[in-house]
């Protein structure tokens, strides 16, 4: 506890800090001497590195920690100039040692410790997780505990940007199997749900994409949790909330996940066109986002949630935006990355095929064919221009009917309602899908009065719902006999 308090105040410990400073100064002098002398062998450089890394076993203050890790990185780069070492692996090992030190000290990430953990995260970002080494990084119990405490606990780390950046470290667990542990996955989900409120799709600072970035790590973590079945309960709870028109944290979080993937695709397109992002990185981001969208919205276990009457509009809007943006980017990548582009077209085609096979009536398909028919046509035309034929979504007969009593029409979308709900502040009737879409916004408000929407500001209209059902039945019968 004493060590922890001393760390948090950025003060020196009872370990004679002058000794640490002396060792670091000597290591710095040795490194400079080796460079000036033109030392070609690496043995002495490794000795310098070992003397620095050994300092991570002592009670360092934040300033000493920063000096150690920066000097160690500088030494690794000097070794790289003289031999063909695996620099990514070396940086990951350095990050692992540094995290062991931080976990042992149990530091709270404030003051200079923010710079310290940011430097560690930068090592992992540059190394891209060193995924081909076959080595399990950040897997010790103490390191896992500390990473999760920083990610989930605002008292341990008040800076939410750094907490989001911890996903750079957590995504390493996707490969090593650590994320498959129920206890770890539950805490990661808790942190993701809390931090999602800070993930603004319009914030370029969060969405900037260069190499392995926050959002790529974020997608990897979500994808791993989804494929391992750890999000099953979240989906189940979200579906129950939507059905009862009682939007809770699970439903809001799923909506934020999908919205963020959508915003990320738009930013990838922007960064690629402005040459802020390389084509290779853009392809990696686009491919993963398409796969993630399919797993989140359309795959088995997801379709029931996003095909529910409330969530269908969220899923439809995301699907349209992602597909349109991807198809706008593909032509600029085709000449050098035709195979990858074909794979993305195939992913979109498979998602549409899945939608066509879902039981009817299908709310997600209804929204796509009713409210986004022009965008769906654009997707088919763009794919056709590339020599790829997309499947066609067929609207339900209900939505072929074009004329109906005005009271059956959604006040926002101007479409025929299925499950009408009255917005009490404006006395306007909207469909359940529209209401849920509004409730899932950051600040739910009535679109007509701007009054806050909550559980007491709307009510279902079962009698009107029955009228609409009877009218549709009669209209369909008349249409089929004429």
Automatic annotation (TrEMBL):
GO terms for molecular function: ubiquitin-ubiquitin ligase activity. InterPro entries: UBE4 (IPR045132), Ubox_domain (IPR003613), Znf_RING/FYVE/PHD (IPR013083). It holds the Pfam family U-box. Residues 407-471 form the U-box domain. Gene3D superfamilies: Zinc/RING finger domain, C3HC4 (zinc finger). GO terms for biological process: ERAD pathway; protein polyubiquitination. SUPFAM superfamilies: RING/U-box. One of its GO terms (cellular component) is cytoplasm. PANTHER family: UBIQUITIN CONJUGATION FACTOR E4 B (PTHR13931:SF2), UBIQUITINATION FACTOR E4 (PTHR13931). This is U-box domain-containing protein. It comes from Petrolisthes cinctipes (Flat porcelain crab).
